[in-house]
C-alpha cells in the first residue's frame, strides 16, 4: 500500500461509512465514527551500543452512537465487517442503558467542515534502522566530544512516525488526512561522585529534512548538563523568575487548561467567568492559528468535525474566548469554538529581547530550566513546583541552582508577566519564548 499504510484513505472512508450505515439501520438517531492507522519505528543507543529497536503499528475504530440524547461508545482494533458491526451494536447497547444528557449530540450541521485543506502535514521518513542507528550514534558522540566531564549517557533516540485517519458523522461530514512526526533526542550525564547532573535536548519535526544536524542536538544537551555542575541551594526569598522557553509553554498550557470547557463547566478552574476580563498584562496577545502549514497542531476541523478558524484568544491582556467543544459549549450555554480535542497552534506574541536580554532586564533573580512534580491546583490557582536552574546577578548567570521550590498563584503569575522573549520554542500546540514573571517565592534552605 502507498506510503506504507496497510489501508488506503479510501478504505478508511469506506469503513467509516459502513459503520454509519449500520448504526442508522440498527436504530441510532445519530452516529460519529473515527478510523485511524499509524506506524513507525524508533531506535535508541547508549554509550554507542544499540539499546532498543522498536516497531509499532496500530489501528483503531471508534464509534459513538446516540439514541435521542443517550450516548454510547465502543471501539475495536479489528477492521473486519463483522467486528465493525459488533462495535456499533456494543455502542448501541451502552446507549440504551445510559442516562439522558441534554447536551449530548452532534454539532450543528452548519458548523461542520465541508472542504478539504492541504496543510502540508505529511512527510514520511523512509529511514533504515542502520541509518537511524548512525544518526543516534552521531548525536550521542557529539555530546561526549564536548568535554571529558560528560561521563555517561541516558541515550540518544531517533524516531519516525506516521499516521492517517478519517472522521465522519451522520450529518454528512467526512474528513481525514495523513500526518507525520519525527524526533531526535539526547540525554547525558556530566560530572562524577556527588556532583553529577543530567540534561537533555531534542528536536521534533514533521519533515525530517528540516532537522538540524543531530550533532548539534547532542552538543547542546552536553553543554546544558555541564552548565549545571556545582549547583547550589538558595535561601528562601522572593524574586523575579524567568521560565525558559520550553517551560514557558507549560505555563501557557496551564492557562489553556483553566479556560477549557471541561474545567469551566465542572467549576474546577481559577479563571471561572473571566471572559472579557484582564488575565494578562496589556502587552500580551495570544492567537490561535489552526491552518499554519506544517504546524504540529494544525487541522481544518476539530474532533467534532467543526471547521477551525483563526481567532484571538487574548488581546491587550483581555480574554477573548474559551476553548470549547460542542459538548462543553452546550454545558456552558455557549457555541463551540472548534476546540474539541484541544487547542490549535497558539502563538504568544514575543517582545524584543532574547533570553540574554531578559536576563539583563531581570537583573537579579532566578532562571528556571527544569521543573519537577505536578504541584498545580487549578481550582485555586496555587502553584508549587520543584525547580532547578541558575541564579542571576546584574543580568548575568553566576551559578547553577538545584533543590528549590518555586511557588505562587497562577492568576498573579499571569498578570505579573513582565516580558516575553523572542527565543521562541514550539512544544506541541504552543509557540512561546521565555517568560519573565515579576515576583515568586523561592523556597530553599
Molecular structure report:
This protein is an alpha+beta fold and 445 residues long. It contains 9 helices and 18 strands. The strands form 3 sheets. Strands 3-2-1-4-5-6 form a 6-stranded antiparallel β-sheet. A 6-stranded mixed β-sheet has the order 10-9-8-11-17-16, covered by helices on one side. Strand 13 (382-393) and strand 14 (396-409) form a beta hairpin. It is globular.
Structure described in brief:
This protein is α+β, with helices and mostly antiparallel strands and 445 residues long.
- N- to C-terminal distance: 62 Å
Query: How do the SSEs run, as a string of H and E?
Result: HEEEHHEEEHEHHEEEHEHEEEHEEEE
**Basic shape:** globular
> Can you count the beta strands?
18
Q: What is the overall number of helices?
A: 9
Task: Provide the helix percentage.
Answer: 10-25%
Strand content: 35-45%
Mean of all residue-level pLDDT scores: 95
| Strand line-up of the largest beta sheet | 3-2-1-4-5-6
Uncertain stretches of 5 or more adjacent residues: none
Rg is 24 Å
Structural class from helices and strands?
Answer: alpha+beta
Largest beta-sheet details: 6 strands, antiparallel
Amino acid at each position: 500500500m502507498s506510503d506504507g499504510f496497510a489501508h488506503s484513505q479510501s478504505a478508511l472512508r469506506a469503513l467509516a461509512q459502513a459503520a454509519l450505515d449500520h448504526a442508522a439501520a440498527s436504530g441510532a438517531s445519530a452516529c460519529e465514527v473515527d478510523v485511524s492507522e499509524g506506524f513507525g519505528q524508533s531506535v535508541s543507543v547508549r554509550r554507542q551500543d544499540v539499546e532498543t529497536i522498536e516497531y509499532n503499528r496500530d489501528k483503531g475504530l471508534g464509534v459513538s452512537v446516540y439514541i435521542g440524547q443517550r450516548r454510547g461508545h465502543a471501539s475495536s482494533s479489528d477492521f473486519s465487517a463483522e467486528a465493525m458491526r459488533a462495535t456499533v451494536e456494543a455502542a448501541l447497547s451502552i446507549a440504551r442503558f445510559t442516562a439522558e444528557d441534554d447536551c449530548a449530540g452532534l454539532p450543528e450541521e452548519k458548523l461542520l467542515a465541508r472542504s478539504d485543506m492541504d496543510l502540508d502535514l505529511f512527510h514520511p521518513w523512509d529511514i533504515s534502522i542502520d541509518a537511524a542507528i548512525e544518526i543516534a550514534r552521531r548525536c550521542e558522540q557529539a555530546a561526549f566530544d564536548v568535554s571529558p566531564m560528560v561521563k555517561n549517557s541516558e541515550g540518544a533516540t531517533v524516531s519516525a512516525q506516521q499516521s492517517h485517519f478519517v472522521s465522519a458523522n451522520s450529518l454528512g461530514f467526512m474528513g481525514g488526512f495523513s500526518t507525520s512526526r519525527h524526533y531526535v533526542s539526547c540525554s547525558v550525564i556530566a560530572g562524577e561522585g556527588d556532583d553529577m547532573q543530567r540534561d537533555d535536548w531534542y528536536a521534533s519535526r514533521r519533515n525530517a529534512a528540516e532537522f538540524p544536524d543531530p550533532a548539534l542536538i547532542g552538543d547542546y544537551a552536553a553543554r546544558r548538563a555541564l552548565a549545571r555542575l556545582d549547583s547550589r541551594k538558595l535561601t528562601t526569598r522572593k524574586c523575579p523568575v524567568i521560565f525558559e522557553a520550553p517551560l514557558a509553554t507549560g505555563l501557557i498550557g496551564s492557562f489553556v487548561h483553566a479556560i477549557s470547557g471541561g474545567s469551566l463547566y465542572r467549576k474546577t478552574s481559577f479563571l471561572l467567568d473571566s471572559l472579557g476580563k484582564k488575565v494578562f498584562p496589556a502587552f500580551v496577545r495570544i492567537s490561535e492559528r489552526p491552518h499554519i502549514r506544517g504546524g504540529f497542531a494544525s487541522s481544518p476541523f476539530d474532533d467534532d468535525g467543526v471547521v477551525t478558524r483563526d481567532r484571538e484568544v487574548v488581546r491587550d491582556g483581555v480574554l477573548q474566548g474559551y476553548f470549547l467543544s460542542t459538548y462543553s459549549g452546550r454545558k456552558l450555554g455557549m457555541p463551540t469554538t472548534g476546540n474539541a480535542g484541544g487547542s490549535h497552534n497558539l502563538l504568544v506574541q514575543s517582545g524584543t529581547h532574547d533570553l540574554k536580554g531578559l536576563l539583563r532586564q531581570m537583573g537579579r533573580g532566578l532562571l528556571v530550566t527544569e521543573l519537577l512534580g505536578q504541584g498545580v491546583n487549578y481550582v485555586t490557582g496555587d502553584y508549587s513546583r520543584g525547580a532547578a536552574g541558575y541564579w542571576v546577578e546584574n543580568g548575568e548567570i553566576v551559578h547553577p541552582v538545584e533543590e528549590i521550590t518555586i511557588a505562587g498563584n497562577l492568576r498573579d503569575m499571569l498578570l505579573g508577566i513582565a516580558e516575553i522573549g523572542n527565543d521562541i520554542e514550539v512544544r506541541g500546540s504552543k509557540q512561546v519564548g521565555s517568560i519573565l514573571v515579576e515576583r515568586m517565592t523561592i523556597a530553599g534552605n
